[in-house]
Amino acid sequence: xxxxxxxxxxxxxxxIRDLIKGYxxxxxxxxxxxxxxxxxxxxxxxxxxxxxPERNEKKIFPVRWNGSNFELKEPNFxxxxxxxELQRLKEAQIIYFVEGEKCADALIKLGLVATTSGGTTSxxxxxxxxxxxxxxxxxxxxxxxxxxxxxxxxxxLKDLGCATHLIDIDSLGLQLKGDAFDWLKTxxxxxxxxxxxxxxxxxxxxxxxxxxxxxxxxxxLMNSQENIVSTAPNSKVxxxxxxxxxxxxxxxxxxxxxxxxxxxxxxxxxxTMLGGAGGTGKTTLALGLAATITTxxxxxxxxxxxxxxxxxxxxxxDDPEDVxxxxxxxxxxxxxxxxILKGSIEDGQKRAxxxxxxxxxxxxxxxxxxxxxxxxxxxIVGMVKGNMNNANEVRQSLDPLVEFAQDxxxxxxxxxxxxxxxxxxxxxxRLLGSQAFTALPRMVWVTATNPKTQDRVLVRAKTNISxxxxxxxxxxxxxxxxGIHTSIVMWxxxxxxHAHEILSDAESLDEDDENGYRAESARDFAxxxxxxxxxxKDCASNEVKREAKDADISWGTLRRxxxxxxxxxxxxxxxxQWVWSLQNSSEKEAARLxxxxxxxxDEHVAQSPMGEQVEQVEQVxxxxxxxxxxxxxxxxxxxxxxxxxxxxxxxGFMEIPRKNPEFDPDIETAL
Length: 671
What we know:
Elements lengths: L8 H11 L1 H5 L3 E9 L5 E10 L4 E9 L4 E2 L14 H4 L4 E5 L2 H9 L4 E2 L19 E5 L4 H16 L3 E4 L13 H8 L10 H12 L9 H5 L36 E3 L3 E2 L3 E6 L5 H14 L15 E5 L4 H11 L7 E3 L3 E3 L2 E3 L7 H10 L5 E5 L12 H18 L2 E7 L18 H4 L3 E7 L6 E8 L7 E11 L2 E12 L3 H9 L14 H13 L4 E2 H10 L4 H11 L2 E5 L4 E5 L11 E2 L10 E3 L5 E8 L6 E5 L5 E6 L11 E4 L11 E2 L1
Helix pairs in contact: 9-10, 15-17
C-alpha cells in the first residue's frame, strides 16, 4: 500500500495514461490533468481532460488512487466533494467562481483566485463551506445550463453570507456556450503565450477586474436617489453620465456626392459584401480589383482608376507567400502598394489580430503608410465575435467596421460564402449567416459559375446607391509567374438583365426529357436564331434585340448563345452603332477583345486586336495637376485623387469616358 502523496509525477502520469489507453487509441489526446487537493495542499484525486481533435469532442474522467492502483472513479468522500484549488481559498477574500477547471486555471495564471465545483450539475454535490463570508464573482458559461448553474450557486452562497456579483455574460459578445477561457483567448490571446511578460498578465487582470456586472434591481435601489456605481473590485465611484439625444437640423448638413473607387460598383467609405459559392473565384476577383487600384488600371467596364493607391488585405484562409502575392503579381499589382495584415504584436509578443481591441492601432498603422483606398477581409465572418446567425451579434461586430470605412474614407470588401441550396432565391438573401450580412452593407455582390462553360458572372444583388441591373462575366485562368503556378481573373464582358435572371441563367442546367433525350434548350434555340439571322449579313445591335424579343428570347440567353457561336461585336464607323457579325467567327475565343490603353496623347480610341473601336475617351487636365477627378458616363464623380507632381498621374492627364458614349455593354473584354 502506498500513500497518494508518495506518488511521483511520473507514476501519476503513466498510471493515468494506462487507464485511458482505450480512448487514446480512438484518437483522443490528453489536454490537461487537474489536481484536487485538500485545504493543506495534499492530493485527494484528479480529473483528466481528453479531446478528440477532429470531432472536437471532450471527455472528463475522475481518477482516484486506491492504495495500489489508479481507478476511473471519484474517492468515497465522507461528506461533499472539495472545491477545485481548495488550498488557495482559505486566505483569499475575493474569489472567482467559474464552470470547469480550464477556466479556473486561466484566471489563476493572471494572479487571481478562482475555483469551480465542476460541471453544471455539480453544485449539489460540492462543499461550499470554505467560501463562507467571502466576496464571490460568478462567471457563467454562455448557455441556459450555465446560467442556471450559477443562479443555483448564488443561492447557496447567499445562505453562507457571501457577497455575490454575477458577471454580465450577455454583454461579453461570446458565442453560444462560450466561457471565461474563450473570452480571455478572444480578447487577450497574449496571455496564453509561453513565458508571457508579467506586464501583459497585469493588463489582462485589470480587464477582468472591471467586467460588467448584472445589477440587481431591489426596492432599496429603486427608492435611492444616489447614482448607481459599479461593484467590481478596485472600481472607482463614478457619477451616472448625463445623456442627451443629438439632433441635427437639415440646414446644418452639408450634402456631398458618393465617391467611387469603381463607378457604381465599389463605393468609397462603405462596406461592400462579395458572396459566392466555393470555386467562383471570389478571392481572385477581389485581388484583381486590388491590382487595378494599385496601378491605376482598367476596371471591367473600361473605366480607369485615377491614381495609384494602397490596398490592405486581411486573409485568415490564404497564405500571402504562395497564394495572395503570386496572384497579385500575376495580375500586375504594384507590390509596394500591397499590405498584408499579419496579426498584432503586444509587448514584443506576436498574437492574432483582434478586430475589437486593435482597431485604433490599425488606424494608426494605416495613417503611417499614407492611407489605403481598399481593404479586403477574407472571410468577413472572421470579424464576428459571436453567433454568425444572430443578427444583433453580427451587427455589433460589423458596426465598428462600417464606422472605420467612413472614418478612413476607404472601401471595404468583405468576402463570404453563399448558403447551401440557395439557388433560385432572391440574390440578396443568399449570403451565409444572418441577414445582417446583407442589410448592413450598402452594396452586395454575388458570383456564380456556369457548370458547363465554367465562366462566372458578377452581379449587384443589393444596392441602394446605384443601379442594380447588369453585371459582368469573367473566368479564372491559370498562369505561371516566377515558376509559381497561380490563378488570375479574366474579364469577358458585360451582361444585361436583373441580378436574379443573370444568376439563374448562369446556374441553370438543361434537363433530360422523360424519354431520356436531351430536350432542346432555350440556348440551342437562340443559337439557331442567331445563325439564321447573321448567316448572310451583319446586324445592328438594336435590330438583333428587336428580332430576339419578337422570337421570345431573353437577352441573357441570347448573349450566351452569341458567345457559344463566337459572334463578334464591333462599332461600325459607317453606321455609328454597334454591329453583330458571325463572319469569320468560328471559335469562342474570337469574340474576346483585348482592351489596350492608348500610347499617344492624341489617340483617344482604344483598339481591339481586330482594329474595331472599343470605347472613346478624352484626356483632360484639371487644376494644374494638383487634383484629378474621374467622371463616369452618367456624369457622377467616380474618384478624386490628390497628386503632388505630374508623374503620379500620367503627366498630369487622366482618361474620362464621354458622358454618353455609344458603348455596347455586351462587348467581351479580357483585362
